[in-house]
Design a protein that fits this description.
The structure holds two protein chains of two kinds.
Chain A: H1 15-34, E1 39-50, E2 53-65, E3 70-74, H2 81-89, E4 96-107, E5 110-113, H3 119-125, E6 130-133, H4 147-158, H5 163-176, H6 182-185, H7 195-207, E7 213-217, H8 225-242, E8 245-250, H9 253-259, E9 262-267, E10 270-276, H10 277-282, H11 287-294, E11 349-352, E12 355-357
Parallel strand pairs in A: 3-8, 3-9, 6-7, 7-8
Antiparallel strand pairs in A: 1-2, 1-4, 4-5, 9-10, 10-12, 11-12
Helix pairs in contact in A: 4-5, 4-7, 5-7, 7-8
Chain B: H1 2-7, H2 10-32, H3 64-99, H4 101-116, H5 119-130, H6 134-161, H7 164-171, H8 176-212, H9 224-231, H10 240-267, H11 269-273
Helix pairs in contact in B: 2-3, 2-10, 3-4, 3-6, 3-8, 3-10, 4-6, 5-6, 6-8, 7-8, 8-9, 8-10, 9-10
Classes of the chains: A alpha/beta, B mainly alpha.
Amino acid sequence: MRSTRSWPAGDEMTAAAIMEAGARRVELNRSETAAAPVLSVSNLSVAFETERGRVAAVRDVSFNLYAGRTLALVGESGSGKSVTSLSIMRLLGSAGVIAAGSITLATPTGPQDLLRLREREMRGIRGRSISMIFQEPMTSLNPVLTVGHQIAEPLRSHLRLSRRQARKAAMALLDRVGIPGSARRVDSYAHEFSGGMRQRVMIAIALACRPLVMIADEPTTALDVTVQAQILELIRELQRETGMAVLFVTHNVGVVAAIADRTAVMYAGELMEVATTAQILSSPAHPYTRTLLASLPPDIDSPFDRERQRLVPISGQPVDLAALPPGCSFSPRCPWSLRACDASLIPLAQVVPGRAARCVRIGDLR
Amino acid sequence: MILFRRFRRGEVIFGLALLGVLVICFVCWPALSSVNPYQSQVSNRLKPPSFIHPFGTDDFGRDVLVRVMYAGRLSLALGFMVAAFACLAGTALGLVAGFLRRLDGPISRLLDALMAFPDILLAIALLAAFGPNLVNAVIALGLVYMPRIARVVRAATLVQRELPFVEAALSMGASTGRILWVHILPNLLAPLFVQGTFVLAYAMLTEAALSFLGAGVPPELPTLGNMIAAGQPYFGRAEWMMIFPGLAIALTVLALQTLGDGLRDALDPLMARGR
């Protein structure tokens, strides 16, 4: 029922907004057919200045986001997933420094390097072309403002809708994300909603201006499993409708399997492996991916798998980002490591076309 | 409704009721009474409380009751203006200091410097510098109490700015000004209101003290402090000249402090949880 409902706000928007949205749709379609990425991150390196010196949180990360497609960014805590997504939004704060790389957004007016934009121009991108949903739906909404106000805010500031238009659009968006009784709920406050409902509101806010890219930073981590599935389904549905690209940051491999077309595995700030989700899950090429999957409960694959009953943890400790080994950052914990692993930095190498891994033993570890 | 229930506690009701009675008296009495507060009658000076002059008469034979009401109105109005000034300036400085960390150091040191002086001493110094009149008294007292507000606002802003909804608003393209105005300020209104109530009470007390010392608003204006100051030479002969304005101050400040305490308890979630 939800999917048959037309996209909200269309008839409520001003003429300029409609034309703008139309132009963007054309651009989306074109980029889909030409397979040009909507957002392209290349060689991104981010460091944090700390008392212990410069800590490299993200090193040489490159990936592309395509319209209508989802890329999952997977890794354990401290692997640089969230830093990567905050870098795209340029919301790292004063301690984080983007040391190198470029982040190119294909806007209707041509490609733009987000790292070169001024803060003022960047504000026009945030929430308009790229929006973000966060992990904590309980606290990501302002407790003293109505949800209608918070959904209307980007519509009013980016699309210059009037108060009344924005309110109507907010109600339509609430309908669209599956919140019943939108006419009443638009004047509700966050504390009147459950966690899943709040995450729906956050999604409505993020989608208000129909962004090209949505970054979802662990949006389901704080939710019940059943609600998780609903939220994932909602994101997929909205993606089909709007053709937005999704960057899905998570540490939950089960969620990855449910939502992502392609998956990038991060460890110690580096991309260890990039491949389709099916390839990652069925035949991981990198030892880290392999050990990560081995450490999961068996029912991820099949609930009747009796053989793998003991979980196999990854031995050792996560690497200290302030004292990285000279070669592969995973080699101290890797059961397959060789002396060559520690000699020098390992490049991300192609395994088969469309699939890459950062390991010297790609060839012989099959 | 929830808010209503939360405010239904003894202190709040007592404070509001007492303040209400006082305000109604201060505002309505002079309007309804036919007695002129400036009408002097030398033959009638320093008369003790009687049926015609319930609070007695002062050294010029003026009715103390109607003068207390007049003075109460003026003192309360002055206190309100001081509280408003302190809240406006303090909120602006506190928000900026709490949100823009670069300016936190300079602003906080300025506030520390202002708070290092005793209230009355600073007020006297500022009034001496500005020249004594009503407007300058408001500004001077406002500057004295502004740092309290600014500190509370800064602390609350520091808490608010780290909350995820601020990051969420940033990620939707909100500017710094918008974040401060739309997202943070409404969350500060509760502590601001409580502090404003206290500042109002303090301002009335300090104004009285300043006037008593002869450093406050010009003596020809009937404020409660000026009335007490005028009665001082006659203490022992005509105590009512000091006692009744003093009572008016005490009751007003009592009402405000009780109200402020009650509001703080009602609005502070940590303290409320204990109940």
